[in-house]
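Student: I would love a firmer grasp of how sequence relates to backbone shape in proteins. Thank you; the sequence and its tokens follow:
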Amino acid sequence: MRVLVGSAVLAMIFSGGAAQAQRAIGPVSAWMVPADYPEDAAADGRGGIVTMQFRIAASGRVEKCRPIFSSAQAALARISCQRIEERGRYVPAHDAAGTPVASEGQLRARWNPQTRGVTVESQFGGAMPLGEPGAWMTDNDYAVVTQGRGDSDAELLFDIGTDGRLTRCAFSALGNAETSRRTCQLFAQRARFRPPVGDHGEPLAVQGTITMHWRH
């Protein structure tokens, strides 16, 4: 039994109140455009979601991008990483001494052949997971969540409060509704985040999304 998390990004947890997480320069949605969609892929109706993990260097540049989950063909996954490396720029993370440091980042690209468009999403709205998201669900949860209904995917949409806890969890029509509902319940109990901060250091409430793939 396996549960695969479409966001297996390693969290960087800072010590010291002065440390700051990385921050994207400009909207991440501008890092890919419809012109990036290969004509043959759009014409053939090929699309899907690509979840990318990458390193954000101390310079703020994106490097070492790789797809960690993809429902799209390999060519679209490759293009997704190429464009994020070419166009993505961040204000780098800083340690407690104020020194720029490397960190990890993660984004999702949605390729839609119907509109011939591609959108880039920041999965947790700038919040940082406390711990590894892949550890929030275990193989032992399979029976509890699926209740004999078999394999399913659960795409969760949630709000993260200023204390880093979930204040709301909903789900899309991607998979079995009851499996998704139970996944939401467990995720809300276990997921914890470090919220992003505003211009004056105040914690911000944000929205996030994650996809769980329950496999026997």
